[in-house]
Amino acid sequence: MEKFFNNISQLIENEGINVTSLESEIGASQGVLSRAIRKHSSISVEWVIKLLKKYPKYNANWLLTGKGNMLKDGADAPYLEPVNWIKDDLSRYEGSHDRAALERVGLRLDEICKVRNISYDTLASILGIKRATLLIYIAGNKEVPASLLETLMLKMPEINPMWLLLGYGDIFNKKIIQ
Description:
The chain is mainly alpha-helical. The protein has two domains: 2-65, 434 Repressor (Amino-terminal Domain), CATH 1.10.260; 85-177, lambda repressor-like DNA-binding domains (434 Repressor (Amino-terminal Domain), Orthogonal Bundle). The chain has helices at 2-15, 19-25, 32-39, 45-54, 60-65, 85-91, 99-102, 105-116, 120-127, 131-139, 146-155, 161-166, 174-177. Helix 8 crosses helix 10 and helix 9 packs across helix 10 (131-139). The longest helix has 14 residues, at 2-15. The two termini are 29 Å apart. Residues 77-99 have low confidence and may be disordered. It comes from Capnocytophaga gingivalis. GO terms for molecular function: DNA binding.
C-alpha cells in the first residue's frame, strides 16, 4: 500500500492540487484519503475508481503498483476521447449484460477465474485471502479493497487495470501477452 499512497502523492503534486482538493473532486469526505495516506491504511476501491475516472490520463497499473509510466501513452497530447467514454463503452454491452454488473469489481474477479480456468480456491490463494472472503467480494456483499487489487496487479500483471477497475477494454494487456 505504501507505493500506492506514494503514487497518489505524486498524482496530487503533478496536478498541482492538495489532498483536500482531491478528496473533494472525487466526492470523498474530507480526511478519507489524508487519513489513509498518513496511517497507510487501505481505502475503498470506490475511491480508486472515482480517482481514475476523474483523472483518466493516469495509468491505473502505475497508480496501483508503481509499474509502468505515470501517464498513459499520449496523455500529454490533447485528450480526444469523449467525456463520457465509460458510458459510451458500457452502452455497447447493455443488451447482454446488466450495466451495474459491468461496473462491479467483484464480478471481474469471477471473470478472471473463468477466463484463466482457475478455481476460486486458487485465486483466493494467489490473493492471500480465504475462499469465503473472495466469494463475498464476487457476490458484491463487500467492496473489494484497493490493497487486494494491488496484490492482483502484482501477481497477474497481464490483467488490464482499466478492465479490472472500470470494466473498460480487454481483460488482458496486449503488450504483456505478445
